Amino acid sequence: MDIEARAHSEHPEALRLWLRLLTCTQLVEKDVRSRLRERFDTTLPRFDLMAQLERSEDGLKMNELSRRMMVTGGNVTGITDQLVAEGLVERIDVEGDRRAYRVRLTAKGRRLFNDMAREHETWILDAFSALTEREVATLHRLLGKVKDHARGSAEVSP
Questions:
Q1: Is 24 in contact with 139 (CB distance < 8 Å)?
Q2: Which of the 8 DSSP states describes residue 43?
Q3: Is residue 4 part of a domain?
Q4: Is 28 within the bounds of a domain?
């Protein structure tokens, strides 16, 4: 039973929508995790870390990676250690700060990430293939309104 099945017709439509969004997210994420494991022998957190580094040619400090990924520094360190051992990322000293370093993709890591990203894109496109382009655009716009409202509410909350 998925979490959406917990909602009943007497529940507010917004609650049922929330549960449907969670269910869809979980189903798509499960599929992506499975495909990353089968196709590339990797995990979603490793893919996510590499995606953050791919966007930053000069690399990122560990605390920045942690913030962007919304995980603890320990999680980032563990994943980084694995990727360094595999030659996919490298650590670079930060000038003027002997305790800090940046992490960036190696050429090998960039090639692998680009292969994974291409396939990842096709998996996501497939996940939304039941919708027309117009429906995707409408859903994107509507969820943007929810996102903006949620951000506004978070800024006002104590």
A1: no
A2: -
A3: no
A4: no
Here the tokens at position 130 are 């039941």
Q: Determine the Cα–Cα distance for residues 89 and 147; give it in Å rounded to an integer.
A: 33
Quick one: tokens of 78?
């563990």
Confidence check: pLDDT of 158 > 60: no
Q: What is the pLDDT of residues 111-129, one digit of tens each?
A: 999 999 999 999 999 999 9
Write down the mean pLDDT value for the chain.
91
CATH number for position 88: 1.10.10.10
- Buried b or exposed e, range 78-105, using 16+ CB within 10 angstroms: ebbebbeeeebbbeeeeeeeeeeebbbb
Are 49 and 76 within 8 A, CB to CB?
yes
The domain tally of the chain equals: 1
The pair of three-digit structure tokens given for residue 10, joined into one six-digit string: 């007497």
| Stated pTM of the model | 0.84
Instruction: Please give the backbone phi and psi of residue 39, each rounded to the nearest 5 degrees, phi first.
Output: -85, -35
**Residue scoring higher pLDDT (96 or 133):** 133
Range of the domain at 90: 41-127
Residue 27 lies in a domain: no
Reply yes or no on whether the pLDDT at 1 is more than 70.
Answer: no
Query: Tokens in use for 43?
Result: 């995990």
